[in-house]
Amino acid sequence: MALWPALAVQADDSFFQPVPVVLSASRLPQPLSDTPAAMTVIDAELIAATGYRDLSRLFRLVPGMQVHQERGNQQWVTYHGLGAEYPNQMQVLIDGRSIYSPHYYGGAQWSAIALAPQDIDRIEIVRGSNSAAYGSNAFLGVVNILTRHTAAEAGSSVGVRLGSHGIADVTGRAVAHHGALGLRITAQELRDDGWSGLRDDQRLRSFNLRGDLQVDATNALEFTAGYSDGEMDAGYAGTLFNGSGERELQQRDYSFHTRWRHTPSADEEWLLSWYHNAERTIDAWRVASRANCLNFCGLLPDTFGDVNNNRSSRRDDIELQHRRAAGDGLRLLWGAGWRHDRIESDFLFSDGREPSRQEWRLFGNAEWRVAPQWLWNIGAMAERIEDDGVRLAPRVFLNWQPDGLRTWRLGYSRAWRQPTLLERWVNVVVSAEGLGPVNQRHAPNPDIEPARIDAWELGYLGPFAFGGLLDARIFDERIRDYIRRTPYASTPALLLDPVMGSTQWTNMEGDIRLRGIEYQLSFKPRLGTTLMFTHTLIDRDADDPVVRRSVAPHTATLSWLQAVGPWHAMLSLMRMGALEAGTNHVPGMRYTVPAYTTLDLSVGRSVRLGSQPARVRVTATNLLGRHQELAHKPLQAMPQYRDRAPNESSPHVFVSLETVFQ
Questions:
Q1: Does the pTM exceed 0.70?
Q2: Structural domain boundaries in the chain
Q3: 21-661: what fold?
Q4: CA spacing 20 to 30 A to 313: which of 164, 377, 426, 483?
């Protein structure tokens, strides 16, 4: 059990080779020692050991990842910070299917993912730009969640979880095989009351189906279908004009993904995939011009208006890729794909626009072992996206392996992040009854340019002193044309513009420079004991202090895993540096969330319920007490909260029990 596996296992071309063969760095199956990137692997054993209910909390254990929560049901997940309001610098995949949302500001809505932790085989995190393999959104990194193949499990299970703050979860899984066909059905319901003192309850239901059909010796078909719906309480009491009013948000998502795999030999494979994602959000509330209007109350009429932030999006994506061994020491991969995104929202696009976008991509990678100790990885992706020209994202890495245990890695990559449909076309006009338009909250910007990053890195993977294993990465990342939200002067000026402000997504002048070191270190001092330490230090340089401080300067975790007979325990101490980040915009609002430390503990035991094996686990998060992790600016701007935190996380304790039926 570790953040990454041992290095002794050698790789071959089999797709089903167990870890440490990884797939997400270059799309070629490679051992960690051969990848053109620093990677962290979170395996199923570690996922179970944490006991976490929230998938996003796992990433706090990964060097370079910065994870916060604004409230119990809203997660903020990024790599190397940035994305101060809505992180969208990182590609997130499930079995290669992108789940970043066209309407969720280009990020992933973690609470709506229709996936139970028990279905996950491992999570591969590429720490660094990977547009050469996955395109625009792999700007700073990639998270690829790989689910279990049905051939690797059998039987059924039922799990329940009960705990503080109204935690009440139930999960059922069933696996069946009929000849060459394997099926797994997972259904779950999650409930909790969120954090103390906040309106952030959530009730989530999901259904997930995976099927694997081995058609013949060389052809296999894989298909998945997912559905989730839920209700999440949102908003805060006492925000400016009730602009983030308390309400119930309803979310409904579904997806279908199918992949055909043709493997004529161990040295060649064709992969054809298609997926469809659809999302629907119901988000409406009533605002009041005189609600918490500070010293502007006397200037405003007592009028009300409705916010109808309902929205829906759809995505279709088709892709073909081919890999083969072209000779001794040379493997090649190429592929092509097409994507179509669509958004509908009367509120977000008040000019009646229903934006859509097509994308075309062509990519390739060559792995060339020129000598026993030297390995080149050379790859690139060319993307053609509507409203923009062709962009090329190249990557060149050289790995030096002086023996079978150590790898030194040096490389360069360039990546692009295309503006989202929302960033380019959002046009929000706020109206009040009897007054008409009173504020243009967002203005479109069709001339916005893609952001670009040029990154250098030097890495080491191998043994460390006292029997440890070290994965270290020194990085230098230069970002140009960074996309951020800035004030905008609407013409003509509207009644509430001086108070609420109008904004527009624009490219920042000047560069952002992120330089630093991150590493993960693992020790096994005795049988059954594992110690893991991760640490990141980032030197941030940007002309705009707000952008600079949206990156925490340091993060660290120390985890102790212990197995004694049927008992398994994990203790994690996590430290996060201060950062200036938060959701929504208030003109002139500045607030830095202080650095904090938190502690999680999980203790589990294997038992038997009659003749059936079972696992019981007690998990506690945030044991060091309440602390703020992210600000909500319209609330933080109110006088009573300018010097204290209105949204603090709460300790949670829960017990889980899972019974397995063979």
A1: yes
A2: 21-661
A3: Maltoporin; Chain A (2.40.170)
A4: 483
